[in-house]
Amino acid sequence: MENFIISPGKPSSCQCRSSNMDSTDGGCRGLPKLQELFRRQRRDSETLNESPDLEFSYGDADFYDNEIAELYCYTEEPEFHQNLKSFEEIFASEGYKQWTTATDTQQRKFVVFLQNELEVADMERRMSAIQSVLYLVQGVFGECETEENQQYWSKKNVYLLYDLGLFTSFVQLLHLEMENKTAVSAALKKQTLSIADSKELRLILNVLYTMVETMRHLDDDDGEEKSLKKQFRNELSMTSYKSHYFLFF
Questions:
Q1: Contact (CB, 8 A) for 206 and 195
Q2: What residue spans define the domains of the chain?
Q3: Terminal C-alpha separation, the chain
Q4: Does the first or last residue of the chain, that is N or C, have fewer Cβ atoms within 10 Å of its Cβ?
Q5: 110 contact partners, CB below 8 Å, separation of at least 6
Q6: pLDDT in tens, 23-56
Q7: Rounded CA gap, 169 and 172, in Å?
Q8: 135 Cβ contact partners less than 8 Å away, ≥ 6 residues apart
Q9: Smallest Cα–Cα separation from 153: which of 206, 233, 92, 214?
Q10: How far apart (Å, rounded) are the C-alpha atoms in residues 159 and 137?
């Protein structure tokens, strides 16, 4: 997969493969598709000084694939595999095999289960649920063989998550993380901080940002999706005085 992008339409055929790990290389067969995105970004960065003439396109936002590429840094590449692993473990524990072959009812039931897991006090369980949701918005790449499949499932999952209230759940998680005095105190005691110290916050922001970018860029949705998108825009324009935050579309 050359770019991690969202296609507005459903592909004519959905060719998916098993999301199991490839025992020969110890990694997910679908993972290199997303890793290539980072390698290309790194190559572009390394050749930047070789291009004296730069062209800038000014606007409110870049193309969707560029926005998503810039969301992640190189050190986050291993977390794609962690997201997939967390999802597969939880999904299997609930008696399911593949997301792409599950029924709509099964998918909705599992998303509600994840939503409940986001509220548990156990940090490990909560983190696994967050990673699983992020894997869904990333398009369940471990089960998809083609770029079109991944594009389709990313869009479909984002709308499903929003419809079931997961965007609001993650906004609430964001506020809890911002008010986490224990984490702040622990960070202040460290002489040096690593990317691992902000993992939960980064994952939460990645989910929120991907959902916003995905729904913002889709303009030819069907009736139900248009209704959800309109509702989403209205929600982003609302102000919560109680939590002291502002969200703008």
A1: no
A2: 31-45+59-222
A3: 29
A4: C
A5: 91, 94, 96, 102
A6: 444 444 445 555 565 555 555 555 545 555 555 5
A7: 5
A8: 83, 84, 86, 87, 142
A9: 214
A10: 9
